[in-house]
Specification:
With 224 residues, this protein is α+β, with helices and mostly antiparallel strands. The protein has 2 domains: 73 residues; 125 residues, Immunoglobulin-like. The chain is built from 2 helices and 13 strands. Strand 7 and strand 8 form a beta hairpin. Helix 1 packs antiparallel against helix 2. The radius of gyration is 31 Å and the shape is elongated. The protein starts with 21 loop residues before the first helix and ends in a 6-residue tail after the last strand.
Length: 224
């Protein structure tokens, strides 16, 4: 009889799969594991059989990987369910205005912005840059910090073209620059959706902002 000896070990079974396809891949990998074990039994050297302890180790290893994959599936399902619950809670935000950081969308209307100067500042300057990073305008603000209605204009007082602009406040103590900070602004919330399991708000320009980065919600002003 032609017997092909083996060294008593087999390669570890393939990974049990990702959470997205865990169930199918676990079943496939388990079948592969059984075929490997059957082949190993058929081809082992009868004079030097494989130690049963090796099989126990292989079974324990596969069982651990399988359990981890199933745990990942459960966690992913729970995360999705929690995300959907968060969407239901945030559904009332749609049609409201949220205060967020990041680029400000200019469309011919005044924009409500909010800023907080650095501690000890006695002078605050608002800087406006276009999407290319070019400085468009600078204007003095009250150093105590506030929310105000910003009229998008350039240094010559002309209305800014529609588009995306970056607003920052520079805090000074005398002539010393203390900090440069991003300005928050109110933007209409068009939609709430899940992104990688977490709720995000969708703004009119399509930008997505994590819901936990929205610092305030208000009803849009009449005629706004």
């Amino acid at each position: 009889m032609d017997v092909t000896p083996t060294n008593g070990t087999t390669p570890a079974p393939p990974p049990a799969g990702t959470p997205a396809a865990g169930g199918t891949m676990i079943s496939s990998d388990f079948q592969t594991f059984l075929r490997m074990m059957t082949t190993q039994l058929q081809n082992q050297d009868p004079l030097n059989p494989i130690d049963s302890a090796d099989y126990a180790v292989q079974l324990a290893t596969f069982s651990g990987v399988e359990q981890q994959a199933r745990t990942n599936q459960i966690l992913q399902t729970m995360q999705t369910q929690m995300g959907l619950a968060g969407l239901a809670q945030l559904s009332g935000w749609v049609g409201q205005e949220g205060r967020v950081g990041g680029p400000v969308r200019v469309d011919g209307k005044a924009v409500t912005v909010s800023y907080r100067p650095a501690s000890g500042a006695d002078r605050v300057v608002l800087s406006v840059n276009d999407a290319n990073g070019t400085l468009i305008a600078r204007e003095e603000l009250e150093p105590d910090g506030s929310t105000f209605l910003w009229t998008p204009r350039n240094a010559q007082g002309q209305p800014l073209a529609d588009g995306s602009y970056s607003l920052t406040v520079e805090s000074y103590s005398g002539e010393d620059l203390l900090s440069t900070d991003e300005v928050e602004h109110y933007a209409l919330i068009r939609e709430i959706r899940l992104a990688e399991g977490a709720p995000v708000v969708v703004l009119p320009d399509g930008r997505e902002v994590p819901a936990d980065q929205v610092t305030a919600i208000r009803t849009p002003p009449q005629g706004g």
